[in-house]
Amino acid sequence: MKVPASHKIWASIPITLLLAATLILTSCTCGQSAPPSSLPDTRTLSPSTAVQPPSNKIAADLTISAVEVNPNQPQSGQNFSVKIYVKNTGQAASGEYDLAISIKDVSRGNTYPVGTFRRGQIQPGESIIAFSSGNIMVNEPGAHQVQAEITPFLFEDGNGQNNKSIWAFSVK
Questions:
Q1: How far is the C-alpha of 25 from the C-alpha of 122, rounded, in Å?
Q2: Are 146 and 98 in contact (CB under 8 A)?
Q3: Among 37, 50, 83, 109, which residue carries the largest CB count within 10 Å?
Q4: What is the pTM of this model?
């Protein structure tokens, strides 16, 4: 008697399942712990002490290298200038990045956005004036800050810890 082809497929399924179950059972420790020498004890490792593989990745590293307020102590109600310098201290060219700038009135706790500006590529070792404006004005005297933050756009910055800067100044 000839067996139809569709029945041959179904006949091989129990054998496949039996082989899979055998592999699982022979590799299962079934509640037994592995010998200490075969598995690392990850309970003693923390993120700060875990060994990380070396990174051969060459990356850009943008940093806000300087903030200038001129005059150093502006008058309330009068324009003053702000310049923000960005430097690539990394080993590769950066991609485009956003530079967000705001003025914080520390005395009153208010923050006023100046804007977010998309900037272009910076070569390794290059320093640029990323923002310059002579039209900044504060109407209240007291303690203020220029706050600037770099956000990489479609590239990885080698050190995100140096992408923020706060420059304190006083308004008369």
A1: 58
A2: no
A3: 83
A4: 0.65
